[in-house]
Amino acid sequence: MPLLHIDHLKTYYKTLRGDVKAVDGVTLDVEKGEALGLAGESGCGKTTLALSVIRLLPDNGRIVGGSVFFDSTDITKLDSETYRKEYRWKRMSMVFQGAMNALTPVYRVGDQIAEAILCHEEVEEDEARGRARELLGLVGVDPERASSYPHELSGGMRQRVMIAMALANNPEFIIADEPITALDVIVQAQVLHVINDLRRKLGLTMMLITHDLSVIAETCDGAAIMYAGKLVERGTVIDIFKRPLHPYTQGLVGSFPSIRGARKEMESIPGSPPNLLQPPPGCRFHPRCPHAMDICSREEPPLVEVEPGHLAACWLCEGG
Amino acid sequence: MKAYLVKRALSLFITFLVVMSAIFFLARSGADPFAEFIESDPRIPPEAVERLRHRFGLDKPLWQQYLDFMVSMFQGEFGYSVTFRRPVFDVIMVRLPWTLMLLTTSIVISTIGAVFLGAYAAWNRGKKIDLIGTNISLFVRALPHFWLGMVFLLVFGYYYRLFPLYGVKTSGIEYANVFEQVKDLLWHLTLPLATLIIRQIGMYTLYMRGETLEVLGEDFITTAKAKGLSDRTVLFRHAVRTSLLPMVTVTALRFGFMVNGAILTETVFSLPGTGRLIYQAITSGDFFLLQGAFFITSITVLIANLVADILYSHLDPRVRY
User: Which among B154, B162, B183, B281 could bridge B290 via Cys, Cβ 3.0 to 4.6 Å?
Assistant: First the structure.
């Protein structure tokens, strides 16, 4: 059994114009110890998927179908108090895009980390503070910075503090949502290095959400591609980058420049992502797909295992 | 910090000069404390009124009067109240404690109430409790408070005789001890305080609700929830603590706004405060009294603002002077 098993999950947002089907029947496994990269365009449901797993959907968002099994327990069925006390941050935590505003501006960062520890463990305040300082050291921030306020830190440091905070209660599973967006390139590399390093050292299972494929290539073992609320392809990083099966994945991989390869015009995918209030029938990618066939606009392609561990949802792959 | 305080004191001083000049010209626009003398008693000879004008310096040119006024204000010399026939300073000092007591008590209680109610409403945004609370707040806020005061007087003072109709003490009473005296005072102040507090809770609950809603949408609230903190901790330690900051400024400003509130409330309940004194000074054209009362009021407001700024820098680590 994988550590995280998402089963036909549907998460909709209620709006005045109808339900936005942000996540619409996604099935995805994350094995213990795996680092899975989840990629896709803005608004394809990556973050909604993560928020559904950690149960922090905004008020108008609701899981309308499917389940999320964490260590064989369906966490969507747990009552919110049990989930809050037993799972959230204790067994799974989340690194938010912390460069901007993810830390409360009026408290010292060390205290904010200690707060997470005190919330889940019976320890003295001094011990929690001490551990907060150790955690800061672990992510490469001077422990003396524990007494700084968030506005006194640079974007990269704030992101490291965010990571330290996510590690506060030794979770097994970490979701990192765009952890390096809004940082400059040098700092991105440093933060990425910290994440990689810690993951190996602590044996963490991780789901990394990004729209930047190169980050996944560099950090992750597996990759999953989402399009318009659906999972379109899942495989190892090699599978996805070397042998992409789904035309959308092919377009995505093709739209990234290669440093070593021949210089060529970058390809872009024509058209724009569909409106999730009324997604197109059949395969959601068919209006933009260069290989669209008749069946694509009529029936939705199932997710099939084309080769071991490499799954795709496309009628082209259906025949093998 | 020190440099800031110096700068701040300087700007306070300039503000103060401007305010005092405004008061000087406002008080003199159309009011003449001696005109009433002549009208009320035709037997007073015009020469006597002229002599009075001379004694009060009103026959000098305006700029001369202005300079005299500024100099004497800085000497703490507020002049002589024509209506009370006593030095202005003495008249005000008897009244000021009442107004300060009324203002401070009502502001403290209504702020605490508004913070809790507003935060609670924001947390339950869109639910029934929020809708009811918001509508009641809007309703209360729209009520003229002098009207509310009169209704209170009519219902609780006249029909049910639960509270006195005017003043701050039962006339002719001898208090056996301090306890009795405090009890009598509270009994008298219940209705005026209730009027002020209810209205202000209505106004500032909405304000606090708006501030809290804004903060609740911030990323750090999601982080706090994600940490597994309880709803109460997220709301009070993270959201309310952050949305309190603008409340501090508003609370200080309220000391200023409240002066007019106090005028009406003090008048309705016949309380001996500076608000009512200002009212009396205006109606009788007693501009020495008016100047003095405005002087004290502006000082109070300016000090309240300074205190708010200093407090702010202690509450918000991002603000350092």
Answer: B281
* A30 contact partners, CB below 8 Å, separation of at least 6: A2, A3, A4, A5, A36, A173, A205, A207, A222
Name the DSSP class of A88.
B
Please state which of the four CATH numbers 1.10.3720.10, 3.10.290.10, 1.25.40.10, 1.10.10.10 is assigned to the domain occupying B97-315: 1.10.3720.10
pLDDT along chain B (321 residues), means of 10: 82 89 81 66 77 80 87 84 87 88 91 95 93 93 90 93 86 83 90 92 93 94 92 94 90 73 84 86 83 84 85 84 66
Contact in structure between A306 and A319 (CB atoms under 8 Å)? no
Nearest Cβ partner for B220 among A90, A102, A119: A102
From the CA of A245, how many Å to the nearest CA of chain B? 36
A209 and A245: one domain? Answer: yes
How many A/B residue pairs have CB atoms within 8 Å? 66
Domain assignment present for A316: no
Residue B219 forms contact with A (CB below 8 Å)? yes
Residue-wise pLDDT tens digits, A260-319 = 766 677 778 888 888 889 889 999 999 999 998 999 999 999 999 999 999 999 998 875
How many of the other CB atoms lie within 10 Å of CB of B313?
Answer: 15
Q: Which of B228, B230, B317 sits opposite A106 (nearest CB)?
A: B317
Contacts 24+ apart (CB under 8 A), A300-305: A303/A27, A303/A231, A303/A234
**Per-residue pLDDT tens for A11-46?**
999 999 999 999 999 999 999 999 999 999 888 999
